[in-house]
Amino acid sequence: MNSVIKVLIVEDNPGDVMLMQDALEGDETIDVIDVVKNGEEAIRYLKQQGEFQEKTRPNLVILDINLPRVNGHEVLQFIKNDEKTKETPVVMLSSSSSDEDIKASYHHYANCYVTKPVGLDNFMEVIREIKDFWLNFVELPDGRSRPQN
To answer: Most buried pick, 94, 103, 128, 144, via CB within 10 A?
Structure first.
């Protein structure tokens, strides 16, 4: 049984947000794409606090590391340490390719780490690949399953 598939993008770069939305929108497997621009907003969103109290939890989080206020590593730690969100898949998508950031992400149980590629076509292709893998091949928690072809 398929249900609503919701993606949360945590990204402060408006250009990257626009490209991610373009690559994700129009896919019949995704019902909702929400965007927050900093780590504080991401945590409030996931806690369903303030302006996010009516939001439901996402099935997939695409998370940048270099965020204002609270960085992506701290958001990842919150997600994986909170009983309500710890099973939510988190894709770390960052311009950083440093071993330190990669190791820290996996240490805090990121589901995968992807370095943002250079170039519009490459960036769009990476987002499409993330979408295809996580929403078409992987069985998601909370009873969400991939579409049956």
So the answer is: 94
